Automatic annotation (TrEMBL), chains A, B:
Keyword Metal-binding part of the UniProt annotation: yes
InterPro entries given in the database record: ATP_grasp_subdomain_1, PEP-util_enz_mobile_dom, PEP_util_AS, PEP_util_C, PEP_util_CS, Phosphohistidine_dom_sf, PPDK_AMP/ATP-bd, Pyruvate_phosphate_dikinase
Protein name per Swiss-Prot or TrEMBL: Pyruvate, phosphate dikinase
Signal peptide range in chain numbering: none
Family, as annotated: Belongs to the PEP-utilizing enzyme family.
EC numbers on record: 2.7.9.1
Length: 894, 894
């Protein structure tokens, strides 16, 4: 016969901590504590298997469950020396959910179950406190009716209000036992009136009602939403824990509290916690009374007037402190515990691995490794790479007041305040001329806004997702960004933004938190990040473990310097087009685009050459011999053309043509789907002189820096959007020719590589041919995801949310690499590429290069390096180490 | 030692007809004729291998070549009884190119080689005609100097003009032997003056100069362009044929001519040809003299006053006629021959398979099969499927005068005249109200132009390629279309088009030829196609051979009826969105898009339901039980919204909203890359009610037609743009629910299938999962090509031409399936799909479904059917038969 119930208590248990999948986190840890000899109120767990059974069998239970529950309940009665529903010495129980992953507050809980008109008298007698007994009874009726019977809370609140009004008092505590007795009567009448049936007096009916309610709550809307947000599969189900009640509110020798084996906010190895004398757990949560500190040290730190537990209940405190050490040593991690003291007797109600700030996580992991509690490898595995991000940016001062205006997507972490401007030009002007700090607010951004984005403290857009232009560029720059803030309406003409009736004008100050997506009116003070010694220590350990190299995507000297600071081992993607938007360059770029023929284009390109050469000279100098992969021009030319009349007039005058000619060129370059248009190496094929100029700039810079520093630069030139070997052959031949010319002119030779992006499905499939010519591959997984899914990053917002809600895609494929589809192409290309050219260098330079689960995938298919934005380099280093340790979770997508 | 020279003549030869790759077409056939005992002037062929050697060895020859040529030349001298360069009896030779594929006029030819100041006297004596000898010498100097020495033609023309002026005569024929002698002297002086060296007198120098010139001409610009246009690889090279000269201009017992074993214009089994008495081949080509007919029958047909060869040279004619029969029987195909009669002796100079009109090709193939000369299978293999297209549409009367205006792409075959209109609305109004025939002229077309395109006689666009919207829709409708006519400038405001200074206004008549891409001013009469008995016969044979089924892409009753007429075995793609643009429907569609919520959308959709049901009722009735695959709504919703102010006001009024709300919706639906946006099944997922309405319309129509006709309809419902199994699962469940409801309401059951397009790389890769839910796959290779290449069909024009010119893509991948990339995905999807669901029905419904080489590929990967536009159904049937016979050529792409 299947085992449907697992008992615990009285110094032993049928479960264990490692049976979390079956018993849920709470049940498994209760069993574990019982086995360790730690005092837990006895009880039993109905495992998650029953939940699965329940949902796949039309909300029914396995046949043997009722009998097994009865047996387990008997054991609890024996241990507690009380009887369920008994008139003299009634056993009361709690019924709680307990899923494999913590889902705090998402599912239902029933306390004080087992009370009825008879047993309440027994409780009154045994506790010697009728007021307590009837208060417990009315709490039970209220909770049970709400959760199990569906009688809404407010009905009971009204009755309670009435009772207090009748007595002309304001606090619950002023009500007497008799008052509560009357309230209980009225509660029962209300249930009868609402349901046409009395409140159940049979305690077994009560129990089964509560169990059903807990299983039912697995599918309530809150729980469904929570699971979606936290990637928890529905199939896991929840367990139900039935456990003897203990009371922290039976007098002043009672208390209840929560504690952590170390300080969860800073990680210090101090016993940390709070408790309330003569109170129940819900009183701690409700926050009506001010809790007292557990330790004297804690009380002093908090400058609290209330005595600590260490001082008022020294013996129980010693017992609790011993349990603290026992549990942390046993679980080898910081524990979050709940306890109740009933008449001087300590009961542990829960232990679990405690949540902590990222700073605390770092300190605890490093400390524990030093203490010998865990290994360095374990310490590395303890840190969530994604959470590191918050350490690298300023954050809002947690104590500061704030006036929430709107909420968008947390697109680039960090917090910043500034005056609102509505155009990139204004941003540049305000910063330069007025020396103001600004927040750039746009419906969406485009490459021509780069200058303005660069000088802004933060960026707010009303459209676009986590991988929109604004988000990607902002993350690359380390600038805070809130994207896709749909409730905000921008009026460019009026220079205002409106949200829910509130109007913010140009020059008004706002604050954005790119880590949460929140936007506040006014300035909110921020706290600067400190990369503590623990951070540095962990990063050192990380670098001894990982196999994948980590590079950064960077094109400006600032980005490159940041990348080095964060430990990047080279530049994996330098996007040369970003260099073309500076005011002194864009005119020459536009002149090139408007030129009537190749001669005209070459004349304009000659003006760009010195700028471009200086760009690379700077990068090579900063990177000090580390590899630099430079991608030649990628975006379609129309991205560089002006669209306002004033700009059109300016460029027309400069180029010596009519404004209409500029407009005509604009029109002729218009594309229905620019993503799939005349861009990437297609530009190099149709206008060879562009790539020739870029290659010349690279080689001249490389020669100059090598010669001046004595440190040889080995440029890696990368051709974008290749779909056929012959594209690469033609362009490589042209680059080789330029190299030869520069080496002859300068009487200096150096090595270089020519490789390609793999960002089209065709390139992945034909990787074997392409690798015959390419000396390296870099997977451009942004575009590869767009083409493989046939889904534009910029346009997918409206349906991607629905897709995630309906479970079609578990993750945003632009944030987390789709292993089933895009991943197969990466694998195919890697295999075919390496088969054609053994040792072919493979890397990834899409947004996924900074995503931990994608990094694990990159390791699994044998890439040599990942490249990500500078601020994600530490994250990638950690994720790479975890991947090497095999700790990272895989990504699933159906 | 390698063999570098292949001799022929004197009743035997070292080559054969099947050595065409080595000897070129001309050389192989000369050898074959020699072996057959047919009189050919003796000579030798320097094979294509030498050309390859020449280009891969710095324009040098293999060492043994000179000796082998000398030997071969000796044999020719022996056979002719003359000596090269001899003063008494000189041998003259021609030097001609001869490639594997015919490249008429693209490469160089030298005649009369072997003449110098000495041998010209020998020729004069032997022929007894000094005038002939010196005329030949001056022709030789002129030709050789131009081709080999680079002295331009006009220098010699000037001298000739001068000579005639001096003598005060106008015709060359009036010049005497002495005149020619003087001209020769001046020619030689001119060469000396131009080159600083005399005209070569050494005949062996002459020969090697000519051989080098022929090899050199393989890489001249004309030849390179021709090869690109005709897909001839450069690596093939050309052979050189050196052959004894024979003269048709040595008197009235001499002649020269060309002839065909059957009539190449209509295919009749009549000996057909022309000849000129006392003339050289170039005189026939020059067209100065009117040629005479070969046969009496021919003379009578042509009502010619000039006597036929049959009448004036009956013996030689009989000999020629015997050779005609011998050659046709030997080659089992219609031959195109050249001959010369020198002093009553017949010499065959060339035979090759003759070019013919498609009508003639059909008749000849069917006749020859009936005559037992070839098998039916061979007859099927003889017809170029693509050429069939010209039989199915009206063509310009070849005799009509025409005034060429411009040239664009031949986007949809057929010729049509009409008055120019510049908008779809005007087209509809002019046709309906004024009963005019119109040609719709647009910069480009969009789905909302469908109505206007439908009523137009022809369509002309200035932008877009062979696979632009206009081209695809026009081919589907069988409407003539010239697309991408870049030289034409359209001014919508002025309602004019301009081309090279000429202005055409609204209402002016133009004619377009969609088979050639030409646009003419005024009306040019057209000729209607006749699907002759031979066509029908061949199609019958075809259907007994082919394995692939052929369906049509059709949505209107007209299209469906056309498809059936052309032999379609079902509808493979019915694009439901095309049904939404009719005036009475578009308003409801827009109301649906503008609705604030699902309820509003359902109200609008309820208005569309009856229309949509009628659409399917009509189709099911026409198709009489043949399968009909219906694709649910595919394009993004913004394609249906109006963009002009007037239209916006209209829809706003109808929907009861402000015009600004319409504009706001327009803006909110705007997409950067609509091709990769919110379309296909993404609409079905986000707005389930749209697909529900369509499914209901399909099932209600199917029930009604099945019940009324007693012929069961089995609808095949196709979900577009699927990228994940779960998309299909959700939509299939919804369709199944609608089906159940309709079946219950109507008390009628029928079978149906739900399948999916495979048009995204991800769908192809995950085909195994998708096939668990999909009952059929239809490859949407248009979109699959766009996503696999990352290349928008609409935007690729500007670079695709350059790509083809540089040899990156040999073919337009939108016209001919890219087997290496897209093809691999089709293969992967087919294999994985069939592995998951054995017997899974597979088809293709992209433009490639009507392309012969792509059809061969479809057969090779095991598809069940191809679906193409109705007018291409016969082409697809023929191509499918050829694929079954293994005759189709593969497609190459690097």
């Amino acid at each position: 016969m299947s085992k449907w119930v697992y008992g615990f208590g009285g110094g032993r248990a049928e479960g264990r901590a490692d049976m979390k999948n079956l018993l849920g986190g709470k049940g498994a840890n209760l069993a574990e504590m019982a086995n360790l000899g730690i005092p837990v109120p006895p009880g039993f767990t109905i495992p998650t298997e029953v939940c699965t059974y329940y949902y796949s069998n039309g909300n029914t239970y396995p046949a043997a469950l009722i009998e097994q529950v009865a047996e387990a309940l008997n054991r609890v009665e024996e241990i507690m020396g009380a009887k369920f529903g008994d008139a003299a010495n009634p056993l009361l129980v709690s019924v709680r959910s307990g899923a494999r992953a913590s889902m705090p507050g998402m599912m239902d809980t029933i306390l004080n179950l087992g009370l009825n008109d008879v047993s309440v008298e027994g409780l009154a007698k045994r506790s010697g406190d009728a007021r307590f007994a009837y208060d417990s009874y009315r709490r039970f009726i209220q909770m049970y009716s709400d959760v199990v019977l569906g009688v809404e809370h407010h009905h009971f609140e009204d009755i309670l209000e009435e009772a207090k009004t009748d007595r002309d008092i304001t606090l619950d505590t002023e009500l007497t036992a008799d008052d509560w007795k009357k309230v209980v009567g009225k509660y029962k009448d209300k249930v009868l009136a609402q349901l046409g049936a009395p409140f159940p007096q049979d305690v077994h009916d009560q129990l089964w009602g509560a169990v059903g309610a807990v299983f039912g709550s697995w599918m309530n809307q809150r729980a469904i939403t929570y699971r979606r947000l936290h990637d928890i599969p529905e199939i896991w189900g929840t367990a139900v824990n039935v456990q003897a009640m203990v009371f922290g509110n039976m007098g002043d020798d009672c208390c209840t509290g929560v504690c952590f084996t170390r300080d969860p906010s800073n990680g210090d190895n101090d016993f940390y916690g709070e408790f309330l004398v003569n109170a129940q757990g819900e009183d701690v949560v409700a926050g009506i009374r001010t809790p007292q500190q557990l330790t004297k040290h804690g009380r002093e730190l908090q400058r609290s007037d209330l005595p600590s537990m260490e001082e008022v209940m020294p013996e129980v405190f010693r017992e609790l402190n011993a349990i603290r050490h026992k549990l942390e040593a046993h679980y080898t991690d910081m524990q979050d515990m709940e306890f109740t003291v009933q008449q001087k007797r300590l009961w542990m109600l829960q232990t679990r691995t405690g949540k902590r700030t990222t700073n605390a996580a770092l300190k605890i992991a490093v400390d524990m490794a030093r203490e010998g509690l865990i290994t360095r490898k374990e310490a590395i595995g303890r840190i969530d790479p994604a959470a590191l991000d918050q350490l690298l940016h300023p954050t809002l001062d947690p104590k500061a007041e704030r006036n929430l205006l709107a909420r968008g997507l947390p697109a680039s972490p960090g917090a910043a305040s500034g005056k609102v401007v509505f155009s990139a030009e204004d941003a540049e002007a305000w910063v330069k001329d007025k020396k103001e700090q600004v927040i750039l607010v746009r419906i969406e951004t485009s490459p021509e806004d780069i200058g303005g984005m660069h000088v802004s403290q933060g960026i707010l857009t009303t459209r676009g997702g986590m991988t929109s232009h604004a988000a990607v560029v902002a993350r690359g720059m380390g600038t805070p960004c809130v994207a896709g803030c749909g409730e905000v309406r921008v009026d460019y003409a009026a220079k205002t933004l409106k949200v829910a009736g509130r109007v913010v004008s140009e020059g008004d100050v706002i604050t954005i938190d790119g880590g949460t997506g929140e936007v506040f009116l006014g300035a909110v003070p921020t706290v600067q990040p400190e990369l503590t010694g623990d951070f540095a220590t962990l990063m050192e350990w990380v670098d001894t473990i990982r196999i994948l190299k980590v590079r950064a995507n960077a094109e400006t000297p600032t980005d490159a310097a940041t990348a080095r600071k964060f430990g990047a081992e080279g530049i994996g993607l330098c996007r040369t087009e970003h260099m073309f938007f500076a005011p002194e360059r864009i005119l020459a770029v536009r002149e090139m685009i408007l030129a009537a023929n190749e001669k005209g284009r070459r004349t304009a390109l000659a003006k760009l050459l010195p700028f471009q050469r200086q760009d690379f000279t700077d990068l090579f100098n900063i990177m000090q011999g580390l590899p630099v992969t430079i991608r030649l021009l990628d975006p379609p030319l129309h991205e560089f053309l002006p669209h306002t009349d004033a700009e059109i007039d300016e460029i027309a005058a400069a180029a010596g043509v009519e404004p209409d000619a500029v407009k005509a060129r604009n029109a002729s370059l218009h594309e229905s789907n620019p993503m799939l248009g005349h861009r990437g190496c297609r530009l190099g094929i149709t206008y060879p002189e562009i790539y020739e100029m870029q290659a010349r700039a690279i080689f001249e810079a490389a020669v100059q820096v090598s010669r001046e520093t004595g440190r040889t630069v080995t440029p890696e030139i990368m051709i974008p959007l290749v779909g056929a070997k012959k594209e690469l052959d033609i362009l490589k031949a042209s680059i080789d020719k330029v190299a030869l010319a520069v080496f002859e002119e300068s009487a200096y030779q150096l090595k270089y590589m020519v490789g390609t992006m793999i960002e089209l499905p065709r390139a992945a499939l034909l990787a074997g041919q392409i690798a015959e010519s390419a000396e390296f591959f870099s997977f451009g997984t942004n575009d590869l995801t767009q083409t493989t899914f046939g889904m534009s990053r910029d346009d997918s917002g409206p349906f991607l949310e629905v897709y995630r809600a309906k479970g079609i895609y578990e993750h945003d494929p632009f944030a987390q690499l789709d292993q089933a589809g895009v991943g197969e192409l990466v694998k195919i290309a890697s295999e075919r590429g390496r088969a054609a050219r053994p040792g072919l260098k493979l890397g990834i330079c899409g947004e996924h290069g900074g995503d931990p689960s994608s990094i694990a995938f990159c390791q699994s298919v044998g890439l040599d390096y990942v490249s990500c934005s500078p601020y994600r380099v530490p994250i990638a280093r950690l994720a790479a180490a975890q991947a090497a340790l095999g700790d990272a979770k895989g990504s699933g997508m159906h």
